[in-house]
Amino acid sequence: MSDDTDMLKLPLDAWHHAKGARMVSFAGYAMPIQYEGIMAEHLWTRDNAGLFDVSHMGQLILSGDNAAEALEALVPGDISALKEGRMRYSLLLAPDGGVLDDLMITATPTGLYVVVNGAVKHDDIAYLRANLPEAIGINHLEDRALLALQGPKAVEALIRIVPGVDQLYFMEADLFLWGEVPLWISRSGYTGEDGVEISVPAESVQALADALCGQPEVKPIGLGARDSLRLEAGLPLYGHDMNPTTDPVEGNASFAISKRRRAEGGFKGADRILKAVTDGPARKLVGFTVEGKMPVREGAPIFAGNDQVGVMTSGGFAPSVGAPIAMGYVAAAHSQAGTALEAEVRGKRVPVTVAAMPFIPHHYHRRGASK
After folding, report:
1. Are 79 and 67 in contact (CB under 8 A)?
2. Burial of 154 (0-12, 13-18, 19+ CB in 10 A)
3. Domain 254-355: which CATH class?
4. 94-133: b or e for each residue (b if 16 or more CB lie within 10 Å)?
5. Which of 189, 158, 160, 153 is nearest to 172 (CA)?
6. In CATH terms, is domain 8-54+143-232 a member of 3.40.50.1450?
7. pLDDT below 70 — which residues of the chain?
8. pTM for the whole thing?
9. What pLDDT, on a 0 to 100 scale, did the predictor assign at position 275?
10. CA distance 52 to 92
11. pLDDT value at position 6?
12. What is the pLDDT of residue 4?
C-alpha cells in the first residue's frame, strides 16, 4: 500500500521504509503499522521505550488577547486557569454537545499550543475559525513534525540527548534546545506509560529520530502497537470510541469537564452535557474482558439475553493482558463492572464481562506521587 500516490507522506516517510516498516493508509497519510511485529513492539514499549511518528496530527497555536477564554466557549475545560507549561486534555464540542475531537491544550509563552487528531485536523481548524473571534489567531504548524517516545525507559534515553527533560512531570511541557534545534517537549502520551511527545522542525526530525533510535532502549514502533497499548490503557480513539454522536459523559470523559465549568456552563452543548452529569447518561462507554481467544472487534453487537444493549467500538488481543479485550457502549443499566453480557462475532455469541478501565495500571510520572 505504500506506493499509493493518493496518500500524503510524513517527513519521515523514507526513514520508515529504510527501517523496514509496513505502511498503510491512516488519516490520509502513509503510516507505519509495524516494523518487526505488533506483539514484539507492544511488549518492547511496555518494558523499554518505543518511538512513534505521530506527525499526521495537527499542531496549532491559538494566540491573541483572551484566547483561553474564547476557546472555553468550545471546550468544557478550565483553560484560562492553565499556567504556562501546563497541559489539559479536553474535547472540542459541537453545538449539541457531541464530541468533534479530543485534544491536548498547553499554555505557552506564545499562546495555546493545541494538538488535534490527524483525521479531523482540517475540520477542527475550520470550526475554530468559524467560532472563535476574528482577533484570535490560528497558526497551523505544518512545518513541524511530532514524535512520541513512550515507555518506562523513555526519559532515561532522552536525557542523554536533551538534558533536563527529567525535570518535567506528567502533563507539563517546556522548550528545550537540541544543539540549535528548538524542541517543544511535553511529558505526556497515549500508551499509559511514562514518556514524552516532541514537537520538532520537520527538517530536523530524521536526525532526531536517528539519535533516539541510537539509544539501546529505543526502537521504532508502528500504529498496530500504538492501538493495542492505548486500548490496554483504557484510552479512547477518536472516530471509534468517540464521535459527534457521543457526549463527554457517555464517552467516559466527565473528568474533562472542569469544576468551574460545571458550575458556570457557557460551552457548546452545556445544557445536554450538564444534565447528563446530574442525571447520568442513557448509555456509557465501558471496557470488556473477553472469554476465550477470539478477538471482538469494532461493530460487534452486544446482547443481554435476546436484547441488544450496545455495540463494540474497539477491540483486539492485548499482549500485556494475554487475552482479548474490548471497549464499547452499553445501556447504563448494564454498565456496572462485573456485568456478564455477550458479543456477536460472525454469527456466534462470545461471553464478555464489563471491566473497569484501564486494563493495566497507568505509569505516569506525576508530580507529588510516591516513588
Report:
1. no
2. buried
3. mainly beta
4. beebbbbbbbbbbbbeebbbbbbbbbbbeebbebbeeebe
5. 189
6. no
7. 1-5, 370-371
8. 0.96
9. 98
10. 25
11. 81
12. 54
